[in-house]
Write a structure and sequence with these properties.
Structural class: mainly alpha
Order of helices and strands: HHEEHHHH
Number of strands: 2
Distance between the termini: 65 Å
Radius of gyration: 22 Å
Length: 131
């Protein structure tokens, strides 16, 4: 087998090295052990500047309320969305929610069981009627 490798430009090599050094700094064991993110840093080289950032994500442990009525949405939607993100969407009709869930299945290839689409749409509509 023959493997052809195209040489990297100097700029690409420097950018790659800078990126690897940032990644290495980001996963230092001392920071991981402390449980606290490091201060943001900046690395410049070869005409490229990389900035690190600290990002806080929504609580991943939160589930949709409603016990068994929420099973379909908890089992299908939490793989990609936080409950908080979905619960903060504007009110929509059942037809609109059904179209939105089907868009997730077809356009974004979400692994949603087609049998659960109606239950998910019903659940989302019922949330708005309870408010």
């Amino acid at each position: 087998m023959v493997l052809l490798v195209r040489p990297l430009s100097r700029r690409a090599a420097v950018a790659g090295a800078c990126l690897l050094s940032l990644v290495g700094a980001a996963v230092r064991p001392s920071l991981a052990a402390e449980g606290a993110p490091g201060a943001p840093s900046t690395v410049t080289g070869g005409g490229v500047t990389l900035h690190s950032v600290n990002v806080e994500f929504p609580d991943p442990g939160r589930m949709f309320p409603g016990d068994a009525k929420a099973d379909a949405i908890n089992n299908n939607c939490l793989a990609c969305h936080s409950a908080g993100m979905v619960l903060n969407q504007p009110a929509m009709s059942k037809t609109q929610w059904t179209a939105e869930v089907n868009k997730m299945r077809t356009a974004y290839r979400a692994p949603i069981n087609p049998k659960d689409v109606g239950a998910i749409a019903n659940y989302l509509v019922s949330l708005r009627s309870r408010k």
